[in-house]
Fold this protein.
Amino acid sequence: MTVGATVGILFTPTVWKALDDVSIWTQNWPWIPRLKYGENKAVATVSKMCESGCAVKVRTVAGEAFGTMGNTENPISGGGVCPLCANGVQVKNSPNRIKSPMLKGEAVTWDKAKEIVAEKLAAAGSKVAVISGDQTGTINEVFSALLASKGSDAFYAMPCDMQSACKAWNGLMGGSGQVGYDMKGADVVLLAGADALESWGPTVANMKAFADNEGGKFIFAGPFQTKTASVTSKWVPVPAEGMAAFTLGICYYVLQAGKSVPAADFDQFKAMVMSGYTPAKVEAATGVKADAMAEVAKQLLTAKSPVVVPGGSVGAHAAAFALNLLLGGGMKVLPEFAKAVGSAMSRAEMMKNDILQGVNADLLFVYEANPAYVLADQVKAGFTVAFDCVNTETTAAADLVLPIPHSYERVDDLASPYGLPQATYTMGAPVCKASLDVMNAGDFVLGLADLGFESFQEVIDAKVSAIGADADSLVEGNAFVLDETPDVSGVTLAASVLGKAASPVKGTGAVAVAPYTLLNVGTANQATTPNAPCTISNNQLVGDKLVVMMNGTTAKKLGVSVGSKVKLSGGSGECQALVQLFEGVMDGVVAAPLGMGHTTGDEFSKGKGDNVYKILTVSSEAATGASTWAGSTVNVAKI
Amino acid sequence: MQVKEFKIKWGMVIDIDKCTGCGACMIGCQVENNIAPMTKKDPYNYVQALTKDRDDPSNKLRTLTWMNIYELSNGQPYPNHETAYLPRPCMQCGSPACVPVCPVVATDKNEEGGIVSQIYPRCIGCRYCMAACPYHARYFNWWDPLWPEGMDKGLSTAVSPRPRGVVEKCNFCHSRYLDAKDKARQEGSDPMNLPDGAYVTACTDICPTKAIHFGDLNNPEHKVYELSRSKHAFRLLEKLGLHPQVYYMSEREWVRKQGDNYNAGGGAHH
């Protein structure tokens, strides 16, 4: 009988079938979501989660958005998407979305919200200000026209390289239009502080240009071997505060080679550089070897179409623009698109006010920006109205929070993200219906004052016709490109200002801090997205601890090693961090990632690491008067 | 195990000199393959107070990163230091180490195209395959996939979410292969001779520097055919003889040397 049973068990399929079934049953739990099938589509629109914005196609199944892909037809994307916008749908569906208007933490109706804002607006007179986290949208025209109707010019952008470029080009040098860089066509690209392949400017377009630029040589100059530097042919270590001097040091060789420009102050510029920024003097001031500058200058001089792309302070931008003018290469000047709203500010006007010098208003509108996280001390207002689609430090601190649709649920646009070589306009139509009680900020503002439009859609329509683009083509995701160059004949080299501004000024702390942005971690305005945490390396975050990097020599000097817990103090605060050794950081520098240490939001960003903005020091650049974080230093204490 | 050869051999050539390690491929992969964000709490765990939180995403042994990015270093001190980034999907080995160790044939290499399959409902979670894979390309679901409230409505139709207790890995976005073949049939062309670009993975699609090339390594009309034969091309741990279908290329010699554990004198420290 035993034999019979054994043979029976061996040959009956019941046991094996039961095992198979058990394995399937134990995988069918009610909480495991089931997929919904239907027609698959990819709908073109724009995503505004990264600073420049991405041109994307949103993938939908049965009308429900689930993923983001690039838009091969659009020069901003070329098929790629940045890691932030790649997670756009997940942010759209996140429980961190703001569900209805909130007045001091209590839900209110839109009518009530409008009533309150109208009242505050009437009472504030001209003491109204706007902080916008959007660098490219026509929404800024609506906000600036609202300010104009109140007799205010208090429009503030969050600190960005576009602002430094505007202040240098349109301010100091008297240029018009917007500066751009042809990284695809250039044969030598010097990224002078611009982390162009990771976080600077229109990152995805830069990366595409880098990929398409066969044979072009990219050189990165900066205090830290960023991700950009991992693929460039060369990394030239230059401290952030020394970038302008370094660039003028290169100008020295270029001037020596006989290059000139027909600028009114060329002689003054030449005299200033040849006496004040000799390679020996620059080496003494910045620590960058004269040979290194000579080598970079030689490469730029022998190139057919070189381009220098600046990052950092206004002075560093002006120096790079002067160098570009001398070299006559791939720096482009783009015309500004015609305005839709007549009384709106131009882009250069919008970039004029310096938020780091402080904002003080009776009524403050904040649009998709997070000043409470970046600039906790600088912004003060009697009553703050925050427009955003997700909860942030700023919405938590605001008096009135107005939820706006996510990028994929609204009409929006991207007018010439800073850095592109051509004036490029892209429009985005809603891909899906808004599921929450939201309103487009443009619609809300147009309801407050008579700016000549009923809805934000009308503003966008007016913009499209003002610039002469074809709306149908834009809806399909194509970009409208304007190939004109404004007159640059009156541009000066800002010689008198630059001579003083380029002189490096550094804090008194033990080590310099090199803050850096990674798009998978987030930006000043956009926190880490839901799928991003597992992409963040242990070089930035371990558990909930921020990680800062320094080289072995610096670590030895500070008496720390891998895994040491340290306290960094500088600026108006301090950060706790773990030490990681990375030999791609200059001596005496600690590289610290921005974008962590949020105190509001979801678990993907809240309480993760520490906020490096707290330890940055705002200083006023000599002669330009512009605020800069370059030259920030910190003291490091082991804890 | 013998090397399995097929008429079509889907493969990748990843240009390390173009990869900046931005992470877009990792996000694109998670979205395509319904990998849930890593949340600490489980709303279905009614005894949460007695149990530990679910794993933290910075614990890299517990993530579900089918596509993962490694940082390479030339090991030199400042200022001669160089760095590079290496994206690592499943290598879809010609002679996979994971297949023969699977006791339930939940993973196999038997389909035209040479993609190593992973049949989730069949997997019993023994993790032998994870131990066998020298590339750490396989991941175990230590936890159920749970999307924060409302986030499960936008899921990809590429693959069903896998429950806890199951091993998963990159399958070169296999449903995209099926879709491409279906499309070819509908259009009356040969599904066994797809043109270059008709089938590409989500990471290939999203990569902003186009560092990832994807195609049929056996088809001279596909770009990867030539790239994989470039003098700068190499495979990871080639000496193990697993014949990966993922190639890398770099003009930097130190990068190529690290690809084959050529680190007798130091090398990578990460």
